[in-house]
Write a structure and sequence with these properties.
heterodimer; A: Rossmann fold; six-stranded parallel sheet; B: 2 domains; 10 helices
Chain lengths: ~425, ~280
């Protein structure tokens, strides 16, 4: 099989080397053209992200020679001697290349396993190559299959479940407490960067109202205007607390600002409706004893990091199941690739039979000069359908046979039966 | 007919066993396919139990609800119906908490059925009484649902408190949804049970022949009154926000367990029944 994958990733190389070999998106069309010139045809896709630089290629030539060409291309394009990157380079040929692409696209090879970004990046790389007409039937089918396996992996396993960044975990936790964030109020105490980023994530999930509390009321007013919230004077924090369903604290205070008493009072006023408290300040702004209260769920930085690592661990536990799906996808693709061996024979048989059909049809049409144009067309279509129907079953079977049996023996036999010339 | 009915009943119990196994698989592996299988097998089980109910009805010509086996058949069907109504869409994962409880009831039913199905169920006196009994069963089914939802709530709440938010936690609905579901189940169960008791009291008051003048001293009534008072308290406490979240879930779970325990003790001591279909032992 002439499909290869040559590249390096965060598993095999340091960031510095990946930066040097990176293909910025605007240079990829030129790089693809250059690559096609070098290969004298063939097909290629360049995938270049912050964690990997890879070239997927398909060519009639031998896989080892193709890998050699790709190495030379990388060296000349980036003007870096091969010796500098070859130790970090991996080369996958045939089914291993297919399996590698499927694992990459399904985010099983990512730095953060299960992240969704890579699927979009592979898709973009493929679209770019398609625009440059540097993909052929095989690479096109390979990438389409990779996308479908990636989707299957995401829907049939929990590889993408649970977020791994602090802000997105906070949002996920909020969603696991409240039905709908649209009717919920979030209170931000302080103006730390992490707090702001968490607030933005919550806003992106459609949180309803924002209360901004800051020691500098002017700062709170500015932020409130910017985000469309309500500024609350710091002294009124206790009074405003019962209105908040979600509290995010990120002040630089050296001692906790909020204690169990604050929340007990707030809960009484709220009819014990649950409160979610995210304390991303170091040192902490909320007394840890608050988590002992019923209906208050407190998460500090350590708790959020613990959730992140648990999510990552849970994703890793799904990998075996994902790899089974990948293997199934690889087997199907390899079978399809094998069936392509039969294509020239199928084409010859089809041409042979349609040739006979056309000759016989011509005789018939010559013998019946009175037929109208419509009638001639109808007869032509009918003969075409008959021949296609006769061909359909044996040709499908032939594809299956060459994919599972000794292809050269099967093809030889078929050529002998139909009296085809050796290609 | 009896053999056929028993065969259908056992098949139903087997379907519930399968549903429970699939729900256990879902709880351990979190595969959506397992949950789908759980629901399908539970539906099959409920369908077969319904068929048992119809076969018994057809065979004896009266609503079969008065023997322990018949009562369990009705209860299993209603509990499954409550499961399908309350554990749907975003709360569908809660179904896997219902199944073990329903399975135990189905097995219990299959154990007592061979002895009970040879006899005719005693006919209830009129449609009014049949409605009263069905309403009581439905209220019990809602109380069972509330207890199961409480378990799910406590599970979610504990995991959130302990900052352990992977696995089954991710598959279960938000706490607020469970809290709302719990409240609705308590409300429906309480209203139905209160109605059942009121209707029963009115009927017993006017038809003294059937249960006798001291019907209110029957053990079942003596249990039902604290039960309705307990659910009245729980319902109103939740309504005004006094009891909510973990405390409410614990209260519902403990209350239901105590009442189930008393019911079993009463059944074992033979202090179970006033009889709608014959003279009451409390008549004199």
């Amino acid at each position: 099989m002439g499909v290869v994958a040559v590249g390096l990733s965060h598993h095999t190389s340091p960031l510095e080397l990946r930066e040097r070999l990176h293909f910025p998106p605007e240079t990829i069309p030129a790089a693809l053209r250059e690559l096609q010139n070098r290969l004298h045809g063939g097909a290629a896709v360049i995938l270049s992200t912050c964690n990997r630089v890879e070239i997927y290629a398909h060519h009639e030539k031998d896989a080892a020679a193709l890998c050699e060409d790709l190495r030379a291309f990388i060296a000349s394009w980036h003007r870096i001697p091969e010796s500098e990157f070859v130790p970090s380079l991996y080369e996958h040929k045939g089914p291993e290349a297919v399996s590698h692409l499927f694992r990459v696209t399904a985010s099983l090879d990512s730095l953060v396993v299960g992240e969704a970004q890579i699927l979009g990046q592979v898709h973009e790389a493929f679209m770019l190559a398609q625009d440059q007409q540097s993909v052929d039937k095989v690479l096109s089918a390979l990438f389409q299959r990779a996308f479908s396996v990636a989707k299957q992996v995401r829907t049939e396993t929990r590889i993408g479940a649970g977020k791994v960044s602090v802000a997105s975990i906070a949002v996920d936790l909020a969603v696991s407490i409240f039905i709908d964030l649209a009717d919920k109020t979030v209170m931000i105490v302080g103006s730390g960067k992490m707090g702001e980023s968490t607030l933005k994530s919550l806003l992106a999930r459609g949180v309803g109202r924002i209360l901004l509390v800051n020691r500098s009321h002017e700062k709170a007013l500015v932020l409130a205007e910017e985000l469309g919230g309500e500024a609350v004077p710091f002294e009124d924090l206790d009074e405003a607390l019962p209105r908040a369903d979600i509290v995010v604290t990120s002040t630089a205070a050296a001692v906790p600002l909020l204690h169990p008493g604050h929340f007990q009072r707030a809960l009484r006023k709220r009819g014990n409706a649950p409160m979610f408290v995210i304390d991303i300040a170091v040192p902490r702004n909320v007394d840890p004893a608050v988590n002992e209260l019923d209906n208050v769920y407190l998460y500090d930085v350590d708790a959020l990091k613990q959730a992140a690592s648990e999510n990552l661990e849970a994703r890793r536990e799904e990998i075996d199941q994902c790899l089974r799906l990948v293997d199934e996808g690889v087997a199907k693709f390899v079978q399809w690739m094998q069936s392509l061996i039969a294509e020239p024979a199928i084409l010859s048989i089809s041409e042979e039979l349609h040739g006979i059909r056309e000759r016989e049809l011509q005789k018939l049409l010559d013998a019946c000069p009175d037929l109208t144009g419509e009638q001639r067309e109808a007869v032509t279509q009918m003969t075409r359908r008959i021949v296609n129907a006769i061909l359909q079953r044996p040709m499908s079977q032939l594809k299956r046979e060459v994919a599972t049996d000794d292809p050269s023996f099967v093809l030889q036999l078929v050529r002998r039966i139909f009296g085809l010339k050796e290609s | 007919m009896t053999i056929l009915t028993l065969a259908v009943l056992f098949a139903g119990a087997l379907a519930y066993a399968g549903a429970t196994a699939a729900s256990a698989l879902y709880l351990s592996r979190k595969r959506e396919a397992a949950l789908l299988l759980t629901r399908r097998l539970a539906l099959l089980g409920a369908g077969l139990f319904l068929l048992v109910f119809l076969l018994r009805w057809a065979a004896w010509g009266c609503l079969p609800m008065t023997t322990p086996a018949d009562a369990l058949v009705v209860f299993v069907i209603l509990a499954t119906a409550v499961m399908f109504v309350s554990a749907r869409d975003t709360t569908r994962a809660v179904a896997s908490f219902y199944l073990p409880a329903i399975f135990v009831l189905a097995v219990l039913c299959a154990c007592v059925a061979p002895a009970a199905f040879g006899q005719a169920p005693k006919a209830l006196h009129g449609v009014f009484l049949a409605g009263h009994v069905i309403l009581a069963f439905l209220a019990y089914a809602f109380f069972l649902g509330a207890s199961v939802t409480s378990v799910a709530y406590l599970f979610q709440s504990r995991h959130l408190k302990k900052h352990h938010t992977v696995g089954l936690f991710q598959a279960l609905p938000p706490l607020e949804r469970l809290d709302r579901s719990l409240f609705l189940l308590i409300r429906h169960g309480y209203l139905m049970f209160a109605t059942t008791l009121l209707v029963g009291a009115v009927w017993a008051h006017f038809d003294r022949e059937l249960l006798g003048p001291r019907w209110y001293l029957a053990p079942k009534i003596l249990q039902a009154v604290p039960m309705v008072l307990f659910y009245a308290f729980v319902f109103h406490a939740r309504q005004c926000g006094l009891l909510r979240g973990r405390k409410l879930a614990f209260a519902v779970l403990i209350g239901f367990s105590i009442m189930l325990g008393i019911y079993l003790v009463r059944a074992l001591l033979g202090l179970s029944y006033y009889h709608f279909w014959e003279s009451s032992p409390w008549a004199s």
